[in-house]
């Protein structure tokens, strides 16, 4: 895990030197798989999946654009031992805003951004054993999180992305599509 974290930090530091412009009116969709879910431990975790959307709304006086968009993610966890089975199903639904920095134009395929998300965490819990049923309020609530991201476009509208931050996982990687 530590080697992955060091690699990710080096990637973002190298990427901070150059970037692609994200203009007012641009839209992008990310389809991601999460690495580093907060669920797990002794049981079996289902891979985290997420979809996010950004739309450039405001040009800034400096080199950048503010985007507004949405996020939805899901993961799950199952624990079977000691005579019972417990399951958690975890969803995050949120609204997010990001600042896309356009100050570096030497590498036109790279888009760098950072932002915040206001989300609602919904956790469903079930058990077939004697463990108390916590499903009435097991981790549900509003949450605020931040993220750092980079997109690399292989063509005008298709690429890969990585986001470091918290949604249903600590790191999301996957495909991105510019609309």
Topology:
Blueprint: H1 2-15, E1 27-35, E2 44-59, E3 64-81, E4 84-101, E5 110-127, E6 141-153, E7 158-165, E8 171-178
Antiparallel strand pairs: 1-2, 1-8, 2-3, 3-4, 4-5, 5-6, 6-7, 7-8
The count of strands amounts to 8
- What profile does the largest beta sheet have? 8 strands, antiparallel, barrel
Highest CATH level, the class: Mainly Beta
Residues in β-strands, percent: over 45%
Q: Class by helix and strand content?
A: mainly beta
H/I helix tally: 1
Give the SSE order as H and E letters: HEEEEEEEE
Compute the number of structural domains: 1
Unreliable residue stretches: 9-19
The CATH architecture can be named as Beta Barrel
Query: What's the pLDDT, averaged over the residues?
Result: 81
Gyration radius over CA? 18 Å
Strand order of the largest sheet: 1-2-3-4-5-6-7-8
Distance between the termini: 34 Å
CATH topology: Porin
Residue share in helix:
under 10%
**Outline:** elongated
């Amino acid at each position: 895990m530590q080697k992955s974290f060091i690699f990710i930090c080096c990637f973002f530091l190298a990427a901070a030197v150059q970037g692609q412009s994200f203009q007012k009116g641009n839209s992008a969709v990310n389809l991601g798989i999460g690495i580093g879910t907060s669920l797990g431990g002794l049981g079996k975790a289902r891979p985290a999946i997420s979809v996010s959307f950004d739309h450039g709304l405001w040009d800034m006086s400096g080199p950048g654009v503010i985007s507004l968009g949405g996020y939805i993610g899901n993961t799950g966890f199952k624990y079977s031992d000691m005579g019972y089975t417990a399951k958690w199903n975890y969803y995050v639904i949120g609204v997010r805003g990001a600042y896309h920095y356009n100050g570096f134009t030497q590498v036109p395929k790279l888009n760098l951004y950072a932002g915040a998300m206001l989300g609602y965490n919904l956790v469903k819990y079930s058990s077939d054993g004697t463990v108390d049923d916590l499903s009435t309020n097991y981790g549900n609530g509003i949450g605020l999180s931040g993220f750092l991201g980079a997109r690399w476009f292989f063509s005008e509208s298709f690429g890969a992305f990585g986001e470091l931050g918290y949604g249903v996982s600590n790191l999301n990687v996957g495909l991105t599509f510019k609309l």
